[in-house]
Amino acid sequence: MLLEIVISFLIVCTIQERVGLLKSEDGIDGYDSRIKLEAESGSLPTDVIEKFPHIRNYKPFKVPSDFDIRDLVKSQLAVVCFDAEGRMIQGTGLQLPGVLDELFSYDGPLGAHFTPEGVSLHLWAPTAQAVSVCIYKNPLAESPMEICPLNEVNGVWSTTVASSWEGCYYLYKVSVYHPSTLKVETCYANDPYARGLSGDGSKTFLVNLNSDDLKPEGWDKLADKKPCLRSVSDISIYELHVRDFSAHDETVGPENRGGYLAFTIKDSAGVNHLQKLSDAGLTHLHLLPTFQFGDVDDEKDNWKSLDTSLLEGLPPDSAEAQARITEIQNDDGYNWGYNPVLWGVPKGSYASDPTGPHRIIEFRKMVQALNRIGLNVVLDVVYNHLHASGPHDKDSVLDKIVPGYYLRRNNDGFIENSTCVNNTASEHYMVDRLIRDDLLNWVVNYKVDGFRFDLMGHIMKATMVKAKDAIGNLRKESDGVDGSRVYLYGEGWNFGEVAQNGRGINASQFNLSGTGIGSFNDRIRDATLGGSPFGHPLQQGFITGLLLQPNGHAHGPEATQELMLSTAKDHIQIGMAANLMDYVLTNHEGKEVKGSEVLMHDATPVAYASQPTETISYVSAHDNETLFDIISLKTPMEISVDERCRINHLASSMIALSQGIPFFHAGDEILRSKSLDRDSYNSGDWFNRLDFSYNSNNWGVGLPPKGKNEHSWPLIKPRLQDPTFKPQRSHIVATLHKFLDLLRIRYSSPLFRLDTAKAIQERVRFHNTGPSSIPGAIVMSIEDGHKGIPNVSQIDPIYSFIVVIFNSRPSEFSFLCPVLKHRNLELHPVQVMSGDEIVKKSVYDTFSGNFTIPARTTTVFVESRNV
């Protein structure tokens, strides 16, 4: 029924190789055939509305049953409405994805497949009129050494070429009607299932990833040597950009800086830093996009560079650095990489040589090296949009092969751009399949351990669940990897054309409940820091001085600020309980409420998770300002850098000691600054610098680039000008040591990493709650099973009880808690041995249950079982 309804709604006539509809006396000319549609009674069938909810109110028509639909889709098509006199009233083009899914959905081989008999090529292109493959001997060849036509069977074009062509390059030549130009185009495209590329990205490298020549020593046994992972709840994540990691690391040779091989240099400053994090307990390294993306040339010789010695002596608020960076930012070697061209090929600019197999081998060496130092590898994947479209753009691939199918379009036929540009349509079967196949490629062929999905809410929930299931079914014995340990998470934002399930049930925060797929918790971020990335930069929050240390921003009357602060505390406490919908706590009004009953300003529930692994807790990421920078903006200008460093650590501690999955942006543990740049995706190495020698945090290297920051320059300039804002090396090193202590504390007890919602509800409690609570402080206890708690098991052999107190106040916090008296609580041994002399001043009185905590301090008390 789906085929019948969608086609009948769209088709009246076909036109071959014409620029548009040519009007004649009856309103249209130049067509080869004309089909009369029959009106259907009633509304669209349920299955059609489920797949295409945005056309639920459309009227159905029917194509005559004796008409051959399969050939029809290869033509230009139009729908025309005539009046009783035969005059054209309206005319329009049509969208075919529903038809293509019903007629041509395909689960067989795609891409290049290697057998002893040769290499078979398979391309799904049901709307193409002809397809050939152009074979090139080398990547620089302008003319193909052979052109082989492909044969079509039900929309899939295929051929077999000689096995001797392995190591050559190829392109598909596709003759296809393209709706953007309204004519049949000859398109030259890379293989959507490409596994290698030429150095300039213009040709697909015919490569067999199973070749022993592409495998580092021990590669096939890597699954047996993966870092141990007891449970998904044990995961902690560190987000890092490949180029940031080593671009400025002088302990790495110039030839390896900014690339994959930098992670293999055993004694480099960067690798030593990662080893420290791993030794303290960190489990996963999240790499920003490493697939083939646009806007950075893979050939390093084509990059423009800047003599940074010209910038070194400039004033900290100078506009010159950003001006010079902006001049070359589209031609240098830097970009975050959220510009997908081909999803299944490692990015060539990070390889020592982008041509041939180097990017494949070096990527594998990177994964292997990171696993050896105890870190699992997460890839940042971007399936929600593509960098280019149309029949001729060099970075366009999918839209050349099946135009109008892979990209989501609005009701007027234009490409949706709510993600950035060229939104993809995972509700279409072959888009869904391509995403799943690509994920399996990275897991099986590169042995990665997780995926972070950019703008995951623009992907359908069904795609995410099927991908999780497919990966989870991989086994070491048959596939060489254990898919059950691969973790999926992403940005579950709900906006654009997919909002409120506008294109089907999407992978947004609330829809993912029960799937075990994680999504970022923006609630705990915004409550902790204040405001949101879209609000005023001076809006204060729980740790940045709201009510207790104003920064001069107009937050409203004192009563309003009190409510804002107490509400923020509720949101944070729910976040610390893994943002569980059914977690019950006492709110600021003294009421017992579930997490789902606590609402944000727009009446959206704060909590959305049903299990702890569905929540990613964070306060900073690559987007927006770094943690140190946002604290420097939101806190009063007169406070000291020592205080800002303590606030930085306080924010990290609230994430590190929460239930759920903690997530940290690279450099937050060393006070990383981008000179207050709020969007450094294209700000070059200068503003994105990471210094693992700990000599500088990159504060005050000039006004951040004009584009996204100019409106805030009046706030930024006086802060950059003030020398007291800049941390010294001693601040950086101390903050790092305290961060390592946080990881050690988290991994000192399974009570910080509870596996189930039931366990969190049974064991985690918040005190200092209700209308009489002291503002700016959170008191959390975690209790293990013992004789006093029936039906609660013992999971920690060392500690029976833990109390964590977060004091964000600018003054000492004293709290009397009768329910916590007469316990044998002592300062956590990690904090006893730390270099933080302030935390050691924390006091617990067992007879009264009174706690005294220094200003801006996180203190952990533990009760040992052997007491």
Task: Please tag this protein with its features.
867 residues, alpha+beta, Immunoglobulin-like, 19% strand, globular, disordered N terminus, Pullul_strch, Pullulanase_N2, pullulanase activity, signal
Description:
Among the domains are: 2-94, Immunoglobulin-like (Sandwich); 108-213, Immunoglobulins (Immunoglobulin-like), CATH 2.60.40; 214-296 and 333-384 and 424-508, TIM Barrel; 308-332 and 672-726, no CATH class; 760-864, Immunoglobulin-like (Sandwich). 23% of the residues lie in helices and 19% in strands. It has 22 helices and 35 strands. The strands form nine sheets. The protein has an eight-stranded parallel β-barrel with strand order 16-17-20-21-22-23-26-27. Strands 9, 10, 13, 14 and 15 form a five-stranded antiparallel sheet that branches. A hairpin with a 2-residue loop joins β7 (111-115) and β8. The N and C termini lie far apart (71 Å). The model is unreliable at 1-22 (pLDDT under 50). Residues 694-863 form the Alpha-1,6-glucosidases pullulanase-type C-terminal domain. Keywords: Signal. InterPro entries: GH, Glyco_hydro_13_N, Glyco_hydro_b, Ig-like_fold, Ig_E-set, Pullul_strch, Pullul_strch_C, Pullulanase_N2. Belongs to the glycosyl hydrolase 13 family.
